[in-house]
Amino acid sequence: MTQTKEIKTESGKKGNHDNAKTTNMKKDTQNAIDTLPAQKNCRAIIEAKNFSFYYGSFAAVKNVTMEIKSCEVTAIIGPSGCGKSTFLRSINRMNDLIPHVHAEGQLLFEGTDIYDKRINLVKLRQKVGMVFQKPNPFPKSVFDNVAYGPRLQGMRNHRKLMAIVEQSLRAAALWDEVKDEGLKKSAMALSGGQQQRLCIARALATRPNVLLMDEPCSALDPLATAKIEDLIEQLKKSYTIVIVTHNMQQAARVSDRTAFFCLGELIEYDLTPDIFSNPAVKQTEDYITGRFG
Amino acid sequence: MRTRLRSVFDRLFTGCTYLVVAMMVAVLLVILIPIFRRGASAIVFRETIEFRRLQFDMNDRGDIEVLKAEEKQVNQFRSKVYKQIEDFKQAVDTAALFDRADEIYRDFNDELRQADIPRTQYLTTRIVNQQIRDHLRAAFEAGDPNQAKESLDSVMEFSEDQRFVGTVAEEFFELAQQFRGTLEQIDLASQRKYLAEVEQVEEIVRRMFGPKPGEPVPSMMRFRYGATRWDMAQRQLRAFLYTEQWVETEPGQPLEKTVALRADLFEGTQLYELFDYVEQNYERFFNPKLTFYWQYFIDDSTSGRYFGGVGPEIIGTLLLTLMSMIVVVPLGVISAAYLVECAGDNMIVRIIRMGINTLAGVPSIVFGLFGMAFFMLFLFPALGMSSRPSILAGSLTLSILTLPVMIRSSEEAIKSVPMGYKEASLALGASEFRTFITVTLPAALPGILTGAILSLSRVAGETAPILFTAAVALGPVPKSIMEPTRALSYGTYDMAVGDRIAMLVPHQQFGMVLTLITLVLLLNALSIILRAHIFKKLQGR
């Protein structure tokens, strides 16, 4: 199984160069933080239709149906083990690393089924970037970290790489901190918050449409968290952001829409103010007010 | 109370660990210090003039003019020793004197025949000649000094005879006079003993000074030079001055070994002073100088490793080690990558793992035999290559030997790379292969290098696998990897077991061991520095 996957990703890589040009993010190259109003191309970019995900016979995500809009920040909250991370990770198929998993139902990204066997995994993952719970920069220089994605797409020209790196770092609000000597320094020398922003920059460098964030602030101190939240505020103008968080205040602060998961099921999905001030389901209210979970 | 008990246990445990570490260090020092000290004596020692001669003959080192002047100076002292021994030997060796008398007799007869003298005179002189010879021989053969003196007296009666003046026969009387002198000094009965002893002395002198000037050059290298090192020269001096004897202290009891002055054996003879002379002028015979013989690491040795260095052995060991590293590191990493990244957990993989673990415990001699049977006798002939021992066969055998270590450590290193790196790379759209090459492998490199260091140390010191496949005791520096080579490990073994030369020149063997240890240490240090450098780079410090 691994073999076939590898062949698929290898063949996909060749076509990447052209694809990267045609992606609708191209117009953003001049200015990362797009000043265009986000609402302009507001549409359902990810759609789950009766989507279930199984680890062996255990259903971690059960029959979820929801739409994620491209103009919004969507937060997913819920108690531990509720399947929110699994759902997030199935959007760019990171769950494939785990043996004996399978999905049922439909999960569409820009209209194509993510779990279609013919899908180009490399292309999908370039379009759907991901930021992990623990900052995980590669043990390479800051520059090499950010340039990793573009290099995968076959970009070798140093000047172009430099442009992308700068633009991504600016977008991740890290440029001012590393611009002089810092680019050549190892990413491991950065602080935790800086590392997480570097990971965001690295994800942005492949010019994704969607940015998945899996509890991006849980390993950071409040100051670093505040910076990341500011960053999310900035990034939502250009990217669709899906964020999983345990921190209800954070969800309330950064997201436009919130989904509440419990035991693998989607309990409630609504605009954030509504969820937090006037939840429709009792379970949600219990969770938010701390009486449950 | 409880906390106090706990702190006692804590301290006890800490103390134990310190103790164990200290013991390990002590053991290591106990082993290493003598090796280093004695091994260093192969490189730093006091060289004698014999050593300078050897270096000039073998490697064309040093100034011949200076050397000759020095030799001349030294030979002044040495020639005195030679002369004294020669004189003594002549005096004592009655068999030689006996023959000499006969020679003179014949020479004189020849002279008579040539001489223009009347026939009757010729005949009588001949008879007298024969008489003198017989008297002289009787004197040499006599066991009793008085009897011998009588015979000598009868010889000396003719000394005034006009017929013998100015002829060869005069030597008869010289011999007689000399022998009379000898009779004054030594006991005729112990002549034979003296002869045996003086021969021993001559042998020791040969070991000290090398062959006598004017003697033909011995064919064996080790007999061409005397004591090349001051410590060896001193050992010979001890042998020269003291003698070991087995003495019966009590009848019926086992003999006891006693050490006695050799000079005492020659008490009352003219050789007695020689021992004092040698002891007092010993340094002048050799002219020892402290030297740093760094060429030990590049010089070839003489056959039998009696003199010279370990140059070819170092080259051979390096070649074998590096060649096997070239084979084993990629093979080990690829195998480990397969086991970690690709192989699942099925029966075949489990059997492979078990095979690797078993392989790690197989004795190295088995690998040696396998290498010979598989590479030399099966694979190489099948490929049309020679089935002689070769560096290639040896290093392949060594790499199989160390492959399990390499696989295991690489496996651990690859496993220990944080999942986050891999996830991050995959999330950016990299294939698994690309992720492995660009992210996992560099992050695992320090661990892989640790495995390489372990294998390297093992490979450099292994003897058994190259015993049949690559190593030779003697031979030229290999010109290609299809030739056999000398190696430090095998050389050490061979010196101790092969011709047991290690007993005669222990510094050579210790030097070889020291070289091996130093080489491994250097290679290790190099890899450790490399590893630290990579690690530092990874950590961004």
Structure overview:
The complex is a heterodimer of chains A (293) and B (541). By secondary structure, chain A is α/β, with parallel strands linked by helices. Chain A is built from twelve helices and ten strands. In chain A, the strands form two sheets. A six-stranded mixed beta sheet of chain A has the order 6-7-8-3-9-10, sandwiched between helices. In chain A, strands 2-1-4-5 form a four-stranded antiparallel beta sheet, with helices on one face. In chain A, helix 5 packs across helix 6 (158-171). Mean pLDDT of chain A is 79; it is low at 1-39. With 541 residues, chain B is mainly α. Chain B has four domains: 2-40; 47-65 and 216-299, no CATH class; 79-190, no CATH class; 311-538, Orthogonal Bundle (MetI-like fold). Helices cover 69% and strands 4% of the residues of chain B. Chain B has helices spanning 2-40, 49-59, 64-92, 94-114, 119-141, 145-156, 170-185, 191-209, 230-241, 272-280, 282-286, 311-342, 347-360, 364-382, 391-415, 419-427, 432-461, 464-469, 488-497, 506-539, and strands at residues 44-47, 242-247, 256-261, 289-292. In chain B, the strands form two sheets. In chain B, strands 1-4 form a two-stranded antiparallel ribbon. In chain B, a hairpin with an 8-residue loop joins strand 2 (242-247) and strand 3 (256-261). In chain B, helix 15 (391-415) crosses helix 17 (432-461). In chain B, 35% of the residues are buried. The mean pLDDT of chain B is 84. The interface between A and B is medium-sized, with 40 and 27 residues.
